[in-house]
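Hi P.,

Sorry for the delay on this. The queue was packed all week, but I finally got your sequence through. Input first:
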Amino acid sequence: MADILYEAALKYKKLQNFRYDILLGRKCKSHRIMLHFPPESFFHLAGLQHLTDITFPSKNKERIYKEILSGNITSDQLKKSVFYKASFIEERLANLYLIESMLVDQSVNYLINTKEYGKYTKIKADYLTEYHLKNDHSIFYLFSVKELKNPQFENECKGCSFFKKHKTDYTNCTSKTTILYIRRICNAGAVNESVEVIYKNPSYNEIA
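Then the structure:
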């Protein structure tokens, strides 16, 4: 039987082939996001930072991700943590595949007021995507953060947290935006780079 941690890591690997070029509009201002999902981001998206009583083989998040793909870290090891259930780790892993749908299905996106946000959550992010699962009343959140220290490219953002809504409404202290376009870039930066237009708002006129 496949390990749920390994399966989640394997599905996450597919996201690494793309960048998502997203343009959001809010009160006559635009906010461009170049969102991607590098190996090291899996650690936080899966909620593994909450398992503080687990000793991982390295502090390097990318190496931990590779160890998971190699089968050297399994969900059985994570379940030994007293925080495994309380942090909904299994739920996060089981639903991590939804991230792609959250990005291509024109989910609702919000700008986060970072000063106000810190009053009720420790999550540090700049953008929030809220996804309502079809044929279900479940709501999922995907948080993204700007890369400010050493950006690899302009408007670089990384996924930094993902989970199902339970009680807290994380749209508090945020501003709802309008999606102007979503483009998916395959093999970004390579010679064979290709761009797929996922969505374009009918009211958006791009200036050449």
